[in-house]
Every structure is written in structure tokens, then in C-alpha cells.
Specification:
Elements (H helix, E strand, L loop, with lengths): L3 H9 L14 E2 L6 H5 L3 H15 L2 E4 L12 H10 L6 E8 L5 E9 L2 E6 L12 H8 L4 E3 L6 H11 L4 H6 L5 E3 L14 E4 L8 E4 L2 H5 L4 E3 L4 E3 H15 L1 H41 L2 H40 L2 H9 L14 H14 L1 H7 L3 H6 L1 H4 L6
Parallel strand pairs: 1-3, 2-5, 6-7, 7-9
Antiparallel strand pairs: 3-4, 4-5, 8-9, 10-11
Helix pairs in contact: 3-4, 6-9, 9-13, 10-11, 12-13, 13-14
């Protein structure tokens, strides 16, 4: 069991907050809560620690449904959720799955609103429902194959993919047509200390862009959810939706990648043909040095005259490929969709801390909340849901 001082360090991270004197910035926080430390507390110690933490932070617990305040009569699950929330930031929203009896999990939402932790509680439930088959998902949504790539697709994660894709429009699904989903143990390109749930990978070394879903996504499904306590969405579905946002915003970059591959193939073919021609030219020169054949001399002279044109052709194809490569990389760094979004919501105002790391992540985090937890997006980034609802957004997804 952790000591009081060690638990305090876990709960407050590296910061200590005083009672807020004014409204804190609203944010949807998805940092990992200290689940292990909180679960390790017995009931008596849990009661002591949560009471002390609320007092130290100057906040009161309040039931969103009844308006009742205080800790008396609260379940262990609610106290755990409150204790995990005070380790985060004032103004944050935490959507937590708290383990209950019988292998069930209780969805609990806690909003740190000024000097109040406002909590809402759903019914204990299973994390997942029955999942469709891979073939059913492909047929229903028009996506590519579900590939076992070092790990195996199971009913749980197929359920999460179904949850995410079911929220997309026909036009959005059309942009994902044929995109495969790979099930892998972990991100092969991530540093060992980095835990990644899912990735949309668009790499010129791959035959085509694809979604990759990793083992860690199932671990987080037992810690967090997205949406409301009455209709919680698995965190893995939320992360898949985040990666869908990247895929949609880069749809035109996908076209650029195909054009880049075509240009590279044309350059390689022209270069190989030139090199083979030079080999034949050098061999014929050697033959002419021996035979002095006049017809061979004419052929060599004609080919020498054509060499400059062949070199110019290769250089032109090289420039086409390099220009397409530069444009594609620029599109991957910030697509037209992301640029339009950032005009409405600067990166440093993204609804989550992770969204504030890059413009592309600000867009993806906002998109997934728009699809799965509109109330959270409206709270943390007012007005952005309306932008997603408008043609200003949907027009950016149309291929030019």
C-alpha cells in the first residue's frame, strides 16, 4: 500500500494547486489517472485521503443529478473517481471507467468546475458489446481487410472499430474506402517508453495507407471512456476516431502520394533505360575500335547526339518527382483541412493537452470529440462543433 506522501506525489504530479480564485480554463483531459495507487487504498484510507485532498484543493464534491454535496454515502467507485480527478487540472473533465464488482465497470464523469467536482454516474456494465466479424465490417463500411499483423483481431476491438465507423457519413467513409486495419502488438516506430493506442500510417514505403491498432488500446478501455455516462464509448473507439480524422484530413495527400509513386516509377524506368543504353553504347564503341565498321560508326554518332536529350528527360522526371515529394510532405505536415480548422481554433486552444502539441493533433482531438462527445467539445472549445457542422469543414474534404 502506498504511503501518504507517495500517494500525494502521484495525485499532484509535480504541481500543487491552491483553491482556485477564478474559473479555470475548461479542458478535456485524457492523461492517465493514477488508477493503481488509488485502487490499492482500503476503504478507510480512501476516505481519509479523498477528504484531505478535497480540503487541500478547496473543492467540494457535488452530484450532478441531485445537487447533493459532500462525501457521505458515496460509493467506493465515486470516491476513486474523485480522487483520480484531483490529480489533474482545475477546469478538466475526466471520463473514467472504474472497476466494480463482478467484472463490471462503472462510467463516471467528473468535471472540475471552479471549486466543485461535479460527478455523474452510469450503471455498471461490460466494457464491450458483441463485435461483428471482419467480413461484416468490410461489407458494411467499404474499408479494407482486417489483418493480423503480430496480434489477432478479437471481438472486443472489432466492436470498437464498429463503434467508430458507425458515426461517419457516407462521404467520410468514401474517403476511407479500401483502407486496411492492421492489428499489431505495438507501434513499431515508437520509442520503447511511448504507449500508442492506434495510428493512421501513410508512408511511401507501404503499398497503401492503413490503420494500425495496438494492444495498449484494450488496457485503456478499462480506465477511460468517451461520451456520456449513459452511452459510454470505448476509449479505443475514440482513438480510432482520432486516427480517422488524420486519414480524412490527408485524403488529398493520399492522392499526392500515388502521383509521387507514379512519378518515381517513371524516373526509375527512364534512368534504367538510359543506363542500359550507355552500357550498349560503350560496348559498341569498343566493338567499333576493333572493326571500324562504318554503319556502326553512324549508329554511335546518332546515339551520341541523342544523349543530351535523354539526360534532359531524366532530369525533368527527377524534378517532377522531387516537386511532388515536397508537396506531399507539406500536405502531410498540414493539410488544407487542418489549416482551415486552425483558422477557427488555434493550436494552443485545442480541447485537450495532447491536441496542443501539433496543429494536426488539435484537429484530430476536436474531430473525435465532435463525433463522440459534443458536450465536451462545446465546453472546452465553444463554437467548434458548429464549424464541423458547416460546409466550411465538409468542403475541405472534397478531392480537388
Amino acid at each position: 500500500m502506498p504511503t501518504s506522501s507517495s500517494l500525494r506525489r502521484v495525485l499532484t504530479s509535480s504541481l500543487l494547486w491552491c483553491a482556485p480564485a477564478f474559473a479555470a480554463e475548461a479542458i478535456y483531459e485524457i492523461n492517465d489517472p493514477p488508477v493503481t495507487s488509488v485502487k490499492a487504498l482500503d476503504d478507510k484510507r480512501l476516505n481519509e485521503v479523498i477528504a484531505n485532498e478535497l480540503k487541500a484543493k478547496g473543492v467540494t464534491a457535488k452530484n450532478a443529478a441531485t445537487g447533493a454535496t459532500g462525501l457521505d454515502g458515496l460509493s467506493r467507485e465515486i470516491k476513486q473517481a474523485l480522487l483520480m480527478t484531483v490529480s489533474m487540472k482545475p477546469g478538466s473533465e475526466q471520463d473514467l471507467m472504474v472497476e466494480s464488482a463482478g467484472g463490471k465497470f462503472t462510467p463516471i464523469q467528473v468535471l472540475w468546475d471552479d471549486a466543485t467536482l461535479v460527478y455523474s454516474v452510469g450503471a455498471p456494465r461490460d466494457v464491450y458489446g458483441p463485435g461483428p466479424t471482419r467480413e461484416e465490417l468490410q461489407k458494411k463500411y467499404g474499408v479494407g481487410a482486417f489483418v493480423d499483423d503480430g496480434a489477432t483481431w478479437d471481438s472486443d476491438l472489432l466492436f470498437s472499430v464498429d463503434l467508430a465507423l458507425s458515426k461517419l457519413t457516407k462521404d467520410e467513409l468514401a474517403l476511407l474506402a479500401g483502407t486496411p486495419f492492421h492489428r499489431m502488438p505495438r507501434d513499431p516506430k515508437a520509442r520503447s517508453a511511448v504507449r500508442t493506442l492506434a495510428v493512421y500510417r501513410q508512408d511511401s514505403s507501404l503499398p497503401q495507407p492503413r490503420f494500425e491498432v495496438y494492444d495498449a488500446s484494450k488496457e485503456v478501455d478499462r480506465v477511460r471512456f468517451c461520451g456520456s455516462v449513459d452511452a459510454p464509448v470505448t476509449e479505443s473507439a475514440a482513438m480510432i476516431m482520432h486516427e480517422v480524422a488524420h486519414a480524412l484530413s490527408r485524403a488529398t495527400a493520399g492522392d499526392s502520394m500515388e502521383a509521387m509513386k507514379t512519378a518515381r516509377k517513371a524516373l526509375e524506368d527512364a534512368t534504367n533505360a538510359f543506363n542500359e543504353g550507355q552500357k550498349k553504347y560503350n560496348a559498341d564503341r569498343a566493338e567499333y575500335a576493333k572493326t571500324k565498321d562504318p554503319e556502326l560508326r553512324k549508329s554511335l554518332e546518332a546515339r551520341a547526339a541523342a544523349t543530351n536529350g535523354e539526360v534532359a528527360k531524366v532530369k525533368e522526371l527527377q524534378k517532377v518527382w522531387q516537386d511532388l515529394q515536397s508537396a506531399t510532405q507539406k500536405g502531410l505536415q498540414q493539410s488544407p483541412t487542418e489549416a482551415a480548422f486552425l483558422e477557427k481554433l488555434p493550436q494552443n486552444k485545442a480541447p485537450t493537452t495532447y491536441g496542443r502539441t501539433l496543429g494536426a493533433e488539435a484537429f484530430a482531438e476536436s474531430y473525435r470529440l465532435w463525433k463522440l462527445d459534443r458536450a465536451a467539445l462545446d465546453r472546452a472549445a465553444p463554437g467548434i462543433s458548429a464549424w464541423f457542422d458547416s460546409a466550411a469543414f465538409t468542403d475541405t474534404l472534397k478531392k480537388k
